[in-house]
């Protein structure tokens, strides 16, 4: 070859698939997709309405859990779910669906506020900068989002509707008879016309405005209350139970959390406990997540029982009313409101020393113990292994069935948030009560006949006897005997007896508590609530929404010494007097009002964001009903409606998911949406992990700078210890997607993350292994493009049969895998096909090359788009039909049949997969090897399992 015909090295390099070429291809096609609106999903109506033919297709609404725009940006673990939903969305488009796939940003919350406190930068400034950085990173991955529908929860046009939803909840009550939410105005009308009795028995017309507000506050689905809350002095805010760790500290900042009584906003999610529980059955969610929600809701059936205490009654909830004769003492939660009402001045005569805690008076004992209990989390208080503590209140209640006086204690193992905050203690038949009774020398009475031969004297037992399959004993009182009855019969009998005397009733209890909805922070949605001069709350009219956050000089709530349990909240907004105190006309003339100075929790904006994706520019309604019905309405297999696929982490099982379900049900009840559930199908992706390294002090060192030598690891010349952990900044082991895109390209990163293993399993990151997917793309490129000239090498010829079989098997298998979110096995099948085509050593036929590109398109869209156009197509690969496998080529031409004689393999026959039993038997018994093995012996039986096995018995 002459020198003039030899390509220069740089010219040859120009046609090879390299990181530089990948970067050029990817940036170029991303620009084209944006310019052409390639990923825009049309609505059936409204300003995003589009081609009716596209809308007529089956729809698919695919969502990722909201990302929070961190200043640290993304590491390669973050996009795992985003890439997965993108691959799935692309496959769904190619199989004929109108696909809605977009992404917004959950941007209110503590991190931005803490950064503002540290730097003085307004949270909006830093948050919007973080969003822009994240958008750039996500765009580089080639995610096919409809960008017209994106938003952030901090956009006033968005949180106007968050505030509006709050007001719908605030202005509603749960009608237990109708089993749905109704407008509070309906309840007021019922009080006014007398069709519903006003609590307390007074006439509605005779109540003052403040008294009416108090009555309605007891019904509203969003209400204020003075109740024990989780107060975190170190953060200067209260926290929901779910935001407190098992050891009684804040999830953020790791500060101590105390129980304190404060006035806060709550959501009456408990009204929906039954529906939240029952409707789980129809959802396509992982069973583990359903179980977590069921356990969190915690439904239990039992009875409420009143124990008389002077003029008061202590009401308990018990799942075992049949053991009432065995109740020998009572325990109240330290926060129980009755405690302060009946503490005597002095200890009763005969009080045991162990009951007093060493204090001179009941008041001293109770005060000291309450302070001690306030420093513990609910989880700590209920820990099975901990020693039982408590103190006698100095008072006795009356057991309603035996008439016995039973001492009343307070103890931290009883929670105000569960049941009534009081228990009847039956130490012979409850392990916690048994331990407490032993510690405080309290009597025990056996009322359930032990079946293990231990006898009926609890003083001789090592632990309580608990059974639902035993007979009642020692349970006879005035007008009732339970002796000899089984547990089920005894429960029914005692419940009826209690109800007949007006001192109890059968009831259902839930572990679920109402949702604490206030935060003492700046960076959150302001409540659209003002208070008049009498302290009565008023909701702002829709015309005054959004109520925007004012500018403040100090973004921090007042914080305190972490151990200052007696401190009180002071919010940033409360210091903005000209914003707090306003003159407003709410329909009855201009008056002075005071704004609510708490803000909503960071969960508020993520409770309904799926609806805003549907109709993001609607300024006059939450969502157009026709649009909501189209994308989320009930349908076959999804009777409650909801998003078709929702992908995110399992850590949100009982926070975001439960809260969002509650909001959806309220909006459904009030007629604003047709879907009673927000997310029909849920998929939890696994986590990308990475090695982390610590030095001799236990301090993490940069993983990227660690060297491996002879099986040991060194940082700056000193040996370090390796461990497996979650990828992130704190462990100094984060790898950014930008690094991988720079070195290999985004398509390689996409393929690697999808090929690492099953999507729902955590997997270790290994940068060295990324090159395997890079080489796959290089081989794909070489199969279609000449690396020396850049010319397309495909030929217009009919493929050989072996090629067609390999192609259609890959189409069949990969297509099913993509539809089933099995991306790793789909990639394996495509890799196998590409390798087969490469080994053939001949130019690809055009029909094979085109279908190969279409197979790859959902996974590696940039290179697929480039090759598709180089193959002569002008329309985007994104909207092409996914290849369909020909069944004739999917079935193997022949299969291997094993023939056994006396259990030993004597022949292997290549037979058609459709061969009949009779034909296969004839082939087997006449095979030369089989005939020789038989040696003339008589065949007693032939067992045929066509087409793969024949067993001959002689």
User: What's the CATH architecture name of the domain at 299-510?
Assistant: Alpha-Beta Complex
**Cα end-to-end separation:** 72 Å
Q: Measured on Cα atoms, how large is the radius of gyration?
A: 35 Å
Strand content: 15-25%
Largest sheet: 6 strands, mixed
Give the uncertain stretches in residue-range form.
1-9
Could you state the CATH homologous superfamily of the domain at 299-510? Valyl/Leucyl/Isoleucyl-tRNA synthetase, editing domain
Overall pLDDT metric = 93
CATH class of the domain at 299-510: Alpha Beta
Shape: globular
Remind me, CATH topology of the domain at 299-510?
Answer: Isoleucyl-tRNA Synthetase, domain 2
Number of discrete helical segments: 30
Q: Give the tally of β-strands.
A: 33
Structural class: alpha+beta
- Helicity, in percent? 25-40%
Explain what the structure shows.
By secondary structure, the protein is of the alpha+beta class. Among the domains are: 141 residues, Isoleucyl-tRNA Synthetase, Domain 1 (Orthogonal Bundle); 212 residues, Valyl/Leucyl/Isoleucyl-tRNA synthetase, editing domain (Isoleucyl-tRNA Synthetase, domain 2); 35 residues, no CATH class; 62 residues, Ubiquitin-like (UB roll) (Roll), CATH 3.10.20. The strands form 9 sheets. Strands 24, 25, 26, 27, 28 and 29 form a 6-stranded mixed β-sheet that branches. The protein has a 4-stranded parallel β-sheet with strand order 2-1-22-23, with helices on both faces. Helix 24 packs parallel to helix 26 and helix 26 runs antiparallel to helix 27. The chain starts with 8 loop residues before the first helix and ends with a strand.
